[in-house]
């Protein structure tokens, strides 16, 4: 009986423990792949969280939102305002950001979920672009427009002042005295990532999660089975919006600044890419996709023509400049071209994303092992 | 007949439905008795599926009433409200959740019955729902589908998908079960198995409405038969009455000659 419902408690606990160890040891294994510095690790965790949350909507229900960057922006602005008005402590900032993005998600989700399919996607895109443009125009008193919202030394910070906490130098986010930059900043994000992963694991293994998957598989059957899909979809939308708000909040915690560009449609598109690249509807896929994209972005966008010249310096001069011309558009500012190629290769050859790729390699190597074992046994028999 | 003393589960009164100029249903009056199997037969295009679809909220009739458990189903009830009121339906093309396991397919309707149209419990583990799981497994065992219950439902053969859909309806213990051609496209062997199964449920006293082409199925199951032709009920009675009814012979022979 136990086996029928795929996962056992022990297996889930083991998954969570391994995940925790993996995330917390990131500074060590990060060094091995040239990612052992806090800025990049923070990005892994923040975008991982964004993608995990996005996957709860897109992966489970199949509803493709093109506007989740709006919640990212809301989370960032809410966090900076919490820094300005309340305290530089990260805890109230995170709570405020998650609650405010939940509120936005309820409104946007309620309106967008009146439609399905492509119309739903377009509605979410429209709401996000509207938020983006409003942040630049009418909401300038709240968002500080193009300059971006930043924390100033003479902000009120009522909680800090009441407790007699003084800011020296430029104001930075802290956690009861611990400044959240560099590695402490990463570990704060890492704890949030682990918490977010745990909640996602719970949802995947719950009847609620199963019903979301059922909506993706056959929404009509769900309705004639006695379920009202609307509140299920709205719950999933709000949960994923809260994840996005948390990710936006963490961005503003490790670097106390919020700008409207975070809400642009490209940011919404990026999380779709991350989720698909890693594996839609899988537990680990979205984090893997997010880390992969941020890792390659870091490598490829750092390369400039000078680096290329040096790389190809073993070639004769004419060939060297030819190679630099060819490869130049794929690096630096143009690294998105590389991402596009990578994305196309994945979608064409392993439509299930990186997770499916690993699964295929796993089953292939098992087959090879079994073959080798069989041959070995034969050899032994002779 | 003492019609007024009978206990009707569903009563359809003066229902009309037109599609453009086509009259799909004209002045349908139909009463379904508690605990009986009521078959609706008729040639292709007679309006059988249209009639069933008006009962589950998929179509709204132009006028008339459909009363079920004290509610008028034509008054803007959504599909899930109609199901929660106690009507489950098997579709002509099996509607299942192909990406979920067979067991999960059966557990989902059980949740609908227990928790209603919406329940938010993201922190409850599915594996702790022992009671629902056991109930679903027991039903699958009855249907000879327990083996491989953790396989994807999408991998089932068509006949088995129908049986699975039937299980999904049965686990809800509906007051009224609507079956739209439950044996269409099945091999003789599977058809007989389905008849056996439906006979078994008949003993449990569940009220059922069956739409069926196969006369063998109809006459071996139905307590009462209504014959639909060109959107109107032309005859109603017990299987024996229907067999000898001149209008029915005419309607069927008329279509059989083509």
Structure description:
By secondary structure, chain A is mostly helical. Chain A is built from 18 helices and four strands. Chain A has helices at residues 9-24, 26-32, 38-61, 69-85, 90-112, 117-136, 140-143, 158-162, 182-204, 207-217, 219-224, 229-254, 265-278, 285-302, 305-311, 317-327, 335-349, 353-381, and strands at 149-150, 174-175, 178-179, 257-258. A two-stranded antiparallel sheet of chain A has the order 1-4. In chain A, a hairpin with a 2-residue loop joins strand 2 (174-175) and strand 3. In chain A, helix 3 (38-61) crosses helix 14. The longest helix of chain A has 29 residues, at 353-381. The radius of gyration of chain A is 23 Å and the shape is globular. The mean pLDDT of chain A is 92. Chain B folds into two domains: 1-74 and 177-186 and 207-258, Rossmann fold, CATH 3.40.50.300; 87-173, Rossmann fold (3-Layer(aba) Sandwich), CATH 3.40.50. In chain B, helix 3 (102-115) packs across helix 4 and helix 3 (102-115) packs parallel to helix 5 (158-170). The longest helix of chain B has 16 residues, at 188-203. Chain B is globular and about 55 Å long. The two termini of chain B are 38 Å apart. The model of chain B is unreliable at 1-5 (pLDDT under 50). Classes of the chains: A mainly alpha (382), B alpha/beta (258). Chains A and B meet through helix 9, helix 10, helix 11 and helix 12 of A and helix 2, helix 3 and helix 4 of B.
